[in-house]
Design goal:
The protein is mainly β. Helix content is about 10%, strand content about 40%. It has a 5-stranded mixed β-sheet with strand order 7-13-12-9-10, with no helix packed on it. Strands 1, 15, 18 and 19 form a 4-stranded mixed β-sheet that branches. Strands 14-4-16-17 form a 4-stranded antiparallel β-sheet, with no helix packed on it. Strand 16 and strand 17 form a beta hairpin. The termini are far apart.
């Protein structure tokens, strides 16, 4: 056996002895870390009777959604640093952002760099989709009632950016936020504040919980094989 083949055989034997690399799962809960729970507010849609007609009761704002236990919905939790030397395959399947009841659904979502986005209009009324990034390519197109689907090419999301705001120029209360990352390790907190990020490679990371209204929080973590619990307590928004 030659020297080169011997080295490969030794390396393979060492890897086999060490066993397979086991990925980890990060899970936790996002809460607010202050006493007073901000009251929910109804969205004022009176300027468009078609929007009002889509609701049997007032539509509550999703700028912040907090339950009685201080759990926060729509926080974007993602690995901020620690994966710079790794690459991940971009999904070809588009993400989906709908317009339902004159509101974006979901309010917060994530995409990978280069992943396309399909924007839907389930309202069948006039909307305008205005994507307002700071580092990526902008997108601003009308969606009349007859247009049900509007594809946004992955080239519009060529760089990481947390977050990109989407808004409707016809209905100024409509907002959505899309985080664009070079990896798939992100999640959006549910109504009970819970989130889960699976199949995370072992390593040291900076993890962030971003929120459009509350002040976000950053933590340093280390993922090994198995499960890791990371909880967040978001502070009131800055008054600056």
């Amino acid at each position: 056996m030659g020297v080169g083949k011997l080295s490969i055989a030794i390396a393979a034997a060492i890897a086999l002895a060490a066993g397979p690399v086991v990925s980890g799962t990060i899970s936790g809960v996002v809460k607010i870390d202050f006493k007073k729970i901000p009251p929910a507010k109804p969205v004022k849609m009176q300027t468009d009777p078609d929007c009002v007609a889509k609701h049997t009761e007032p539509h509550m704002s999703e700028k912040y959604v907090v339950d009685a236990d201080k759990n926060v919905k729509f926080a974007f939790v993602y690995l901020k640093t620690g994966l710079e030397e790794q690459t991940f395959e971009t999904p070809t399947r588009p993400g989906k952002l709908d317009q339902v009841g004159c509101a974006y659904a979901p309010r917060v979502m994530g995409l990978m760099v280069g992943q396309p986005l399909m924007i839907l209009n389930s309202d069948r009324i006039m909307h305008n989709v205005n994507m307002t990034p700071k580092v990526n390519e902008g997108f601003n197109k009308a969606m009349p009632a007859k247009i049900r689907k509007l594809p946004v090419r992955g080239t519009h999301f060529s760089q990481p950016e947390v977050m990109i705001r989407f808004k409707c120029d016809v209905h100024p209360w409509m907002s959505a936020y899309v985080g664009v990352l070079p990896h798939p390790f992100f999640a959006v907190s549910a109504a009970d504040g819970s989130f889960t990020i699976e199949d995370v490679p072992p390593g040291k990371y900076t993890i962030e919980a971003w929120h459009e209204f509350f002040a976000g929080q950053v933590q340093e973590i280390e993922v090994a094989d198995g499960a890791l619990t990371v909880n967040f307590g978001l502070k009131p928004p800055s008054r600056k």
